[in-house]
Amino acid sequence: MDTHSDEARRALVSLEMILSGDYLTPTVNGIRYFNKPPLYNWLIIGSYWLFGNYSSLALRFPMALSLVLFGLTIFFFVRRYVPAQASSLRGKSTPPLSAGLVTPSVIAFAVAMMLVTNARMWLYDSLLGLIDITFSWVTYTAFLLVYHFERRRNYWALYLSTYALTAIGFMLKGLPSLVFEGLTLLTWFSYTRQFRRLLHPAHWAGIILFALLVGTYYVAYFTRNQIPFRDLASVLVDQSARRTVVNYGLGQTLRHMLTYPFEMMHLFAPYTALVVLLFRSKLWCVLRTEPFIAFNTLTFLVNFIVYWASPEVFARYLFPLLPLLFTVLAYLYYVQTAPTDPRRIWPERIWQVIGVILTVGCWTAVWYPETRSLPGIVWKTAIVCCLLGLVTWSMFRPSINRLGLMLALMVVVRVGYNWLVLPPRFEQRDFHRKTAERVASRTRGAPLFGFRQTIGSDRSNDVSTYQATDINSFYIAAYRNDILRITDQKIDGAYYIADSISLPGEWYTVVDTLTLFNHHPAYIVRFKPAGTAVLQ
After folding, report:
1. Model pLDDT for residues 355-414, shown as the tens digit of each residue
2. Is 6 inside a domain boundary?
3. Of 288, 305, 471, 515, whose CB has the highest number of CB atoms within 10 Å?
4. Peptide bond into 518 cis (omega under 30)
5. Are residues 157 and 218 in the same domain?
6. Which GO terms describe its molecular function (predicted)?
């Protein structure tokens, strides 16, 4: 399990729901957790039941399935609506600049694979059981259903389907779904001069459907938990506003707005090299001649502004918007730019350089300290090198589809990543699982608690911040089949996980030692009456 993301928190919350038998109330170490609604936890729970265990495979299965469905959804909509030939500014169709080889299926496949194989998704987020890929799939589908049903003038289907998906998105991640829905509807109906459609009776029906779907859960939640509504609402609002100008001020926001477009370039490489295709005269005239391209452009821009103006933004937050951008870039590459156009040559040269660097650089695995002892390191590296070299060689040959070759190169990169990079990481991460197994064996048959601030957040009644000790709590709870709760009460016969900060002035005996994330020493102790044990 990853130790540098909130994957462990998703796993822990889901496990505690199973152990407590309360599937309405998310908790962390037995304390109510308000940051995220529980839908993704329910998906993980279903996966745990499906696999019959609490393995990382079961944890990540909902993400992997969502990624496949995300790619298929992109392929379906793009193939259906993307134009495979250019339209002149007078509305007449002209042959595609790569005549005879460009079809909607080619463009759709490229866009789907650009989403799946960009560096951030392919080498990081697609390996973790996080909410964002599932949320992004739901959100992107809602975007495209706005276009799909608006073209058919089916406003009942438009509003009911997109607000149903907005409710699902809300139950996954909270308020951002409402922002995406509102901005997309307002922008597209304003652009198409159909503002009155926002007052259509179906819109009110969609809002009511959203309220019913979300409200049903919260009625059940507050029926079970007698707490003020403001406690939960304030956390949801804080989660949405904490990364914005409201929290960071104007100066830091302006600095972020200057640097963030460049951060995007490397986060979602190598396909962001295609942004050079945007530098052309009459760009908007080119984009707006095709309604589907105009929709993707406008929807990306209006929703991107929300994150562009938010200083603390993680790359995965942009996943719902990436297919919109990649659709525009792929259209410009395949349909609007000739193979000999300098704007197309520049990104292709960048891809060729990347291919050469990867082909030569993969051999560092043979002598790098963390990988050189891997079984079969030489032949694995040789195979990866040959495959990378073959694709790179193809890039240097005449081709009108070097984007397709870059997609193939990224597939080979993932093979090498699986063989050469992931195994050493597994050994490092498995340390905490083995530690938890030993702790569970040592404390079996008696209660076990986290003492004071040793486990979890800095305050026993606050789990609003990410804590890496979630990985320790998860494995210990899984092996003991019992929630690892936090307390400052001392109970006869109970074991406690405590550190040197929480133990001064206490009488106790040390049963064992352990190391919490991140290299934090702690003890398994039992408290004794004064004078019968060690006094610290």
Report:
1. 999 999 999 999 998 898 899 999 999 999 999 999 999 999 999 999 999 999 999 999
2. no
3. 471
4. yes
5. yes
6. pentosyltransferase activity
First to last CA, the chain: 35
Judged on CB neighbours under 10 Å (0-12, 13-18, 19+), 124 is: middle
- Rounded to an integer, what distance in angstroms lies between the CA atom of residue 477 and that of residue 436? 9
Q: Does the pLDDT value for residue 154 go beyond 70? A: yes
Instruction: Identify the domain boundary among 306, 334, 362.
Output: 334
Nearest-angstrom CA–CA distance, 455 and 522: 10
Angle ∠(464,59,268) on CA atoms, nearest 5? 75
Whether 61 and 195 map to the same domain: the answer is: yes
Looking at the structure, do residues 241 and 101 belong to the same domain, yes or no?
yes
| Residues 329 and 421 reside in one and the same domain | no
Q: How many CA atoms within 13 Å lie on the side-chain side of 7? A: 23
397, 429, 461 - which closes a domain = 429
Note the pTM of the prediction, 2 decimals. Answer: 0.91
Burial of 513 (C-beta count, 10 Å sphere; 0-12/13-18/19+) = exposed
CA distance 274 to 260: 17
Considering its fold, how many domains does the chain have in total? Answer: 3
Q: What are the pLDDT digits (tens) for 434-481?
A: 999 999 999 998 999 999 888 875 434 444 444 568 999 999 999 999
163 shares a domain with 266: yes
Residues 362 and 280 in one domain: no
Same domain, 228 and 118: yes
22 located within any domain: no
- Residue 456 — φ and ψ, nearest 5°? 85, -150
Quote the CA–CA distance of 134 and 138 in Å, as a whole number.
6
Phi, psi of 313 (to 5 degrees): -125, 130
Nearest to 19 by CA among 45, 40, 57: 45
Q: Is residue 5 part of a domain?
A: no
| 3-state DSSP assignment of residue 487 | strand
Long-range contacts of 168-172 (CB under 8 A, 24+ apart): 168/39, 168/138, 168/213, 169/135, 169/138, 169/139, 169/142, 170/37, 170/210, 170/214, 171/37, 171/38, 171/39, 171/213, 171/214, 171/217, 172/36, 172/37, 172/39, 172/40, 172/131, 172/134, 172/135, 172/138
Residue 488 DSSP class: S
Structural domain that includes position 499: 432-535
For residue 369, count other CB atoms closer than 10 A to its CB: 7
Task: Tell me phi and psi for residue 523, to 5 degrees.
Answer: -130, 155
